[in-house]
Amino acid sequence: MGLTAGLLDKTVFLDTAPLIYFIEGHSIYQDPLFELFKANDEGKLRFATSTLTLLEVLVQPMRLNRSDLVDKYEQILTSSPHLDIYDIDFRIARRAAQLRAKYNLKTPDALQIATCVERKSDVFLTNDVDLKKVTEVAVLTLKEIIDKGPL
Question: What is the tens place of the pLDDT at every residue in 91-111?
Answer without folding.
Answer: 999 999 999 999 999 999 999
